[in-house]
Amino acid sequence: MKLHLSAPSNTLIKTEVKITGSKSESNRLLLLQALYPAITINNLSNSDDAEVMQKGLKIEKGVVDIHHAGTAMRFLTAYFASQENKEVVLTGSKRMTERPIKVLVDALRELGADITYENNEGYPPIKIKGKKLVQNKVSLPANISSQYISALLLVAPKLENGLELELIGEITSVPYIKMTLGLLTQIGVESSFNGNTIKVLPQETLPAATLVVESDWSSASYFYSIVSLCEVGTEITLSAYNKNSLQGDSVLAEIYKDFGVESTFGEHQVILRKTTSTVNKTIEIDLANAPDIAQTIVVSCFGLGIGCYLTGLHTLKIKETDRLEALKEELGKLGAPISVTDKTLTLKPSDKINKDIAIDTYNDHRMAMAFAPLALKTSLYINDAEVVSKSYPDFWKDMESLKFQVQTS
Ligand SMILES: O=C(O)C1=C[C@@H](OP(=O)(O)O)[C@@H](O)[C@H](O)C1
Ligand SMILES: C=C(OP(=O)(O)O)C(=O)O
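^ thats the input. predicted complex w/ phosphoenolpyruvate below
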């Protein structure tokens, strides 16, 4: 589906949007619910990634296809490895077979797991014969993906002696590890995270508990971007959000102050207001803790005509696509003076934006959603716009509710 997007006729927007639950929190809680059936989950994400996770958890034997969902791939690997009597082949989209999993498989094998590669060493698909994992200590590199660490932590309380992880090297995407530990605390599992050591205590059973998933902060980023590009006075209320979030991407509220957007928290909501059009000519941000909002931020900067120097982007190359190359290509088509390395991105300030460019999305939901707010500055096309369903199936409907003109072309 190719969409043509143009701005609302009135760019002084005042509206409310209710966003679906965080896919990261949802996929963690779905796994925990499979281990502790007394857990009830409210405001579960309606994303494809949460749906494949739910389906995957029900399978006992045969092929489990998790499509593009990185968290489902990594979390289910640890889950099936630790489930006696289950035997599956875990696979996904073509891109998923290019996203590395060796660090997690090596760690699980050290704990006693039986996992073999079906095609390429280090990459899905993988065959998993569930076993009782007998070891309780393992070390693993922490600089490639935090999802390997979260995967191990999620199954840890069900291991006979719990788990002790030693993290080697610089730890990337730290807030996602803390989110995992935070959810374990909420269900009543004890853990500690000191320096590079994480310990989780065993917990055989748990009493009934209801957990509420906060709405998705990465999805909120697209509305921060919209407000930053709108007239002063624009106001969008997003729900259901809390000031104290488990999601690292809530740092948006701080970051977008530099783009003239103020955030005010109310009861389970955040109000975004454009309060000034005066912004710095260039900003510098380290996104090692919040990699999923890199695309949103660079597009906001381009729309505002300001420059940015983004660092800590080393994980972007192994996400749904090589996001650094994709940004260089697509922003380049729009006329942006952009350059990238393996872990940084530089955008120079510029005023000109090319019109009616078709943005390619590379099977990456965030390419589609990050570029959409640019319609406030120029009309553009988004190719394969249905990709948004990976995390935010209602995205285009919500854009229409803001009076953006969204037309199938
Ligand atoms: O644990 C999670 O829910 C996630 C961790 C991050 O991945 P990395 O740790 O691979 O950076 C993030 O990019 C992804 O969207 C979700
Ligand atoms: C990187 C992402 O997801 P995952 O790694 O779970 O596929 C994302 O949603 O931006």
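The CA atoms of residues 244 and 250 lie 9 Å apart.
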